[in-house]
Amino acid sequence: MNNVTELVSSKDSDVNCDSGSISILSSGDLDSLRSLMHQLLRDCGWQDDIRKKIHNILDTRGVNQVSEGDVIAEIIPLASKLVPKEVRCELEKRVRDILLLNLDI
């Protein structure tokens, strides 16, 4: 399950510009956003839904007949699509708030 949420929460927070690379989110901000994302996904039942879908794949095809890579390749696009709009909106709002605070806009 961590692979799915790790892919959703990228650690890349740098922006390239002519003068080099500048950090727009601190590691504390990223940790806070990552924690919030994990909590929101847990609270809405997304993690349990994805876990059930993984078990369904393993039960249907057989544990010994499907590789970890096959499961991941099938689950990642589905998991991303199943993130509730409310979770996406809340995370987007938090990122926007942090950026506005950090950029003094």
TrEMBL record:
<dbReference type="GO" id="GO:0003713">
    <property type="term" value="F:transcription coactivator activity"/>
</dbReference>
<dbReference type="InterPro" id="IPR018783">
    <property type="entry name" value="TF_ENY2"/>
</dbReference>
<dbReference type="GO" id="GO:0006406">
    <property type="term" value="P:mRNA export from nucleus"/>
</dbReference>
<dbReference type="GO" id="GO:0005643">
    <property type="term" value="C:nuclear pore"/>
</dbReference>
<dbReference type="Pfam" id="PF10163">
    <property type="entry name" value="EnY2"/>
</dbReference>
<dbReference type="GO" id="GO:0000124">
    <property type="term" value="C:SAGA complex"/>
</dbReference>
<dbReference type="InterPro" id="IPR038212">
    <property type="entry name" value="TF_EnY2_sf"/>
</dbReference>
<protein>
    <submittedName>
        <fullName>Enhancer of yellow 2b transcription factor-like</fullName>
    </submittedName>
</protein>
